[in-house]
């Protein structure tokens, strides 16, 4: 890994808005999943309400709440429908055909927020936002069962100011099934072989030296980090002792036990945007 020191102050924007979507009842039986555990819809609803409440009331974001669509069982996982960086929103072409229409409501919401919209219309491209890790300096795009090379190329065209590297994702749904940014220049990464292998590739591809925080459980490495000047550094995350090493962070544990049964991690449930308030 090259010796370019990170200027941490420049990394990772603050956020003013979050786009979330209500949970459809169809999630329990029809959402896509790699496992077979039964979802308790009531508990899933409670978890989601708490998540949205933290964004609104603890972190002070303006939250745009899209209505659920029963015909789109995975629609609560809004992250997959768009990648937002600066003033640009790339509306994706999700890898699962059953999820493609989720992008319509997301496009409308992000247009309303005044973002410049780029649409992934190429029918050979697929990309889920869950495969996109933005570090503040560059993008890593997981090549997974949902995201392909063409999807990564279109993302690179949409965000020309940043380098984009691809990382093969093995044995997991998305790249962010085992990693996320947990602070400026700090990558939270799971301890599994798949996660460590992906991290090694990211380190080899990058000109930047990232710090890493290794979590024993891959899913716990998926946290929502945001730098909110009025609140200090914040991380919205699953409860795990190792995060307590992050002394400067305000840590807000949020349970995610039900949505995880349908492969939904914490970052999956919001699209974070940095705009002036009250647009
Ligand atoms: N259930 C989330 C997904 O498979 O995309």
From TrEMBL:
It comes from the Eukaryota. The active site is at 174 (proton donor), 268 (nucleophile). InterPro entries: DDAH-like. GO terms for molecular function: amino acid binding; dimethylargininase activity. GO terms for biological process: arginine metabolic process; citrulline metabolic process; positive regulation of nitric oxide biosynthetic process. GO terms for cellular component: mitochondrion. Substrate binds at residues 32, 74, 79-80, 99, 146, 262. Keywords: Hydrolase. Pfam families: DDAH_eukar (PF19420). Belongs to the DDAH family. This is Dimethylarginine dimethylaminohydrolase 1. It comes from Cyprinus carpio.
